[in-house]
Amino acid sequence: MAEPSEPSEPIEPVQDIEPAPRRRSRKSAAKKAAAAKSTRAAKKATKKAAVEDAGTRAYRRMPEPEQVMDVYRETGSITAVAEHFGVPRHTVAGWARRLRSQGHAIGRQ
Fold it and tell me: How many helices (H) and strands (E) does the chain have?
């Protein structure tokens, strides 16, 4: 077997290479801190308002079935029922699922 040949010129180590510049973050540290502080304050205010209103998380409780059905008959949509009661649409979708299991005709069949 033939031995590998030596390179004709010696390879010099590269010494003067600068590292790639770091990317700047999208938000400065001050902006991040301010955003986090405002988010915490908003969550705290929302929680405090919920406690002051009823002491419990009322939006989790479904109103009387006939009340929900009356609003649904007037508006014709789950989204409108959610807006009427001031709850998220997915909450009313859960109510609708419960009402369908009880025999009511609400939402998509």
Answer: 4, 0
User: What is the pTM (predicted TM-score) of this model?
Assistant: 0.46
Per residue in 75-92, pLDDT (tens digit) is 889 999 989 888 889 989
pLDDT digits (tens, 9 = 90+) for 28-53: 666 666 666 666 666 666 555 555 55
Cα–Cα distance between 27 and 86 in angstroms, integer? 34
DSSP 44-68: HHHHHHHHHHTSS-GGGS---HHHH
Q: Rounded CA gap, 26 and 24, in Å?
A: 6
Question: How many whole angstroms separate alpha carbon 19 and alpha carbon 101?
Answer: 64
Residues 87-96: contacts with CB under 8 Å, at least 24 apart: 87/59, 88/59, 91/59, 91/60, 92/68, 95/62, 95/68
